[in-house]
């Protein structure tokens, strides 16, 4: 069945909003929605960093750098 681009895009936006809301609720209750977000909450609490989004960003950057070192293929497109 053919679904036009606008409808597909709206479903994508809706799913991203629902997903982000779920992640935000689990992070705000200090449960963590996945291993990386739970560890970011713990790092944020341990080092008293004011910005959780900064911790999540830096953690994602560190994981990407580590994966690129392990993979030994440093392609910007994969980053």
UniProtKB/TrEMBL annotation:
The keyword Membrane applies. The chain crosses the membrane at residues 48-70. It comes from the Bacteria. It holds the Pfam family DUF6198. Keywords: Membrane, Transmembrane, Transmembrane helix. InterPro entries: YczE/YyaS-like (IPR038750). This is Uncharacterized protein. The lineage of its organism: Bacteria, Bacillati, Bacillota, Bacilli, Lactobacillales.
């Amino acid at each position: 069945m053919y679904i036009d681009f606008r409808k597909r895009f709206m479903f994508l936006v809706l799913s991203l909003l629902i997903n982000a809301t779920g992640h935000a609720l689990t992070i705000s209750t200090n449960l963590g929605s996945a291993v990386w977000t739970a560890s970011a909450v713990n790092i944020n609490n341990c080092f008293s960093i004011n910005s959780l989004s900064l911790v999540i960003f830096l953690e994602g950057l560190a994981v990407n750098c580590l994966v690129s070192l392990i993979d030994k293929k440093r392609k910007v497109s994969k980053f």
